[in-house]
Amino acid sequence: MAVRALLHYALEVPDQTVGEKFYRSFGLTEDSGGDPAVRLRPAGLKREAVRLYAGPKKRLHHVAFGAPGDDFEATRESIKRAGVKEIDPPKGASGDGIWLRDPDGNAVNVRQEAAPLAPADPPLTLNSPGHIMRIGLRGYPEHLEPRPRKLGHVLFFTPDMNRQIDFYTRVLGLRLSDRAQSIVAFLRCSTDHHNLAFLQSDRPGFHHGSFEVGSVDEMAMGATTMGDRGWEPFWGLGRHVIGSNFFFYIRDPWGSFAEYYHDLDFIPESCAWEPRDFPPDDALYKWGPPVPEDFGLNRELEG
Ligand SMILES: [Fe+2]
Q: Ligand 1 centre and the CA of 30: distance in Å?
């Protein structure tokens, strides 16, 4: 019993056109789905990773997970066993799959779908001490358009982290990968170190969606490109402790973020991974520019 993939996240936003412009600059492609939501996807994938619905202000509309094959009915059973009621899809969303709410009230959709297949890139050819991969060739990147390969994870604010961890592990079968006390927690439903994370706040909220890119060059040049296009490269380049990924956060039009990441910890199902409880100093990063003061601010508390 478990969900196996993070499929997409959906936001309600006051101006879908601005949102579409942001995510297009970020490197996603728009799909005209013929429904009320703007759908955006990595160019190499056949399904969307982000949906934008119209609403009075930015907030999470829903998050969708995939439970392919037998996992779908097993997940439905688990939901029933936990006494969690199925709900009608939120306004505007199609009725596919199972709909429920997590303890924070976030709408969750479980669909009988596997993660979309991301085509593999050619291997990176990096020269490191004793390991020469690139011989007789210049290594500096030509212009690199940011090209997210897939949605990796979402991070939500929560007023009750342990309640969220309990719900997502017990009811939907995610696993806790690591945490930093009651500050932040990271869960996975695939071989990625995390697909869902929670940051402590007074209220629920959407913090960021994170997308894998092909290299550190692509992250840094992607952030520069976003700056050139009038968006705000907010925090990066840096390296997280938990999950180990390089990160670069770009501020979205609503004060939350979209993240480029690269080189995340990979945890196969067979791996005896022991979750660790990191000290607060390790909650955010190993190196990088100082954390901007309002990085952890839940703007959904305002107004
Ligand atoms: Fe992230």
A: 22
